[in-house]
Amino acid sequence: xxxxxxxxxxxxxxxxxxxxxxxxxxxxxxxxxxxxxxxxxxxxxxxxxxxxxxxxxxxxxxxxxxxxxxxxxxxxxxxxxxxxxxxxxxxxxxxxxxxxxxxxxxxxxxxxxxxxxxxxxxxxxxxxxxxxxxxxxxxxxxxxxxxxxxxxxxxxxxxxxxxxxxxxxxxxxxxxxxxxxxxxxxxxxxxxxxxxxxxxxxxxxxxxxxxxxxxxxxxxxxxxxxxxxxxxxxxxxxxxxxxxxxxxxxxxxxxxxxxxxxxxxxxxxxxxxxxxxxxxxxxx
Length: 284
Ligand SMILES: [Zn+2]
Fold this sequence. Notes:
Layout: H1 3-8, E1 18-23, H2 34-43, E2 46-51, H3 59-68, E3 73-77, E4 82-86, E5 89-92, H4 95-108, E6 114-121, H5 130-150, E7 154-159, H6 162-171, E8 177-180, H7 186-194, E9 198-201, H8 209-217, E10 223-225, H9 245-256, H10 260-274
Parallel strand pairs: 1-2, 2-3, 3-6, 6-7, 7-8, 8-9, 9-10
Antiparallel strand pairs: 4-5
Helix pairs in contact: 6-7, 7-8, 9-10
Bound molecules: zinc ion.
Zinc ion is lined by residues 22, 24, 52, 117, 157, 228.
């Protein structure tokens, strides 16, 4: 249970908990102690976790994890806008990266709760010209089409590309999307709110003025929780874990001036609206 809940002696935590809407639980960082990591996240009230993928090479591992922790780890498969070419070397995604992923997405389509992690990343070290940006756009457009065909939401990354990402999603007629760790301006985020999109807030909000401003503007009805573990933790350079979902929730409750219980209830309802397949994890 989160600290403030323990203090308040709130008992309803048995009935409801948090949902981590974006987590890289298949990362090698968790290979050695995944049981403990999952146990400690359950102790703070985590009910379910969406395991997102970055490339086809980790799809089978994500499916295996979802089978090892049924009703707790829910798989999302997709191709991230930044791909590793060799250790320490990365480039923007191209359609060829998606070709390797498509047969595996097709194979597991009935198990997926979303297509992700997909998106646009225009950080200068990954894109040097318009062709690179265009490749990323094509990969995202194709995955948006697949999500529509499968009636699945998108779990979306955008970095230095907030406006192009939201515009592309709207152009493609995407109705169900989670914008994770959105780094754009609040005014751009509000365009996403108008389109019915949700925004998930990671624990790094405690050290990010941009995310604090974003949360002030966003209606709670469009906010979800995430950890993006092992990245975006409350402390830089320290492995982030799903149990830190509390850090996001507590910070949002402070900024919004509502109870932690309210943040839990509303964000979990939001997650259920966006990802209806999570219903099997939420006990009435
Ligand atoms: Zn991520």
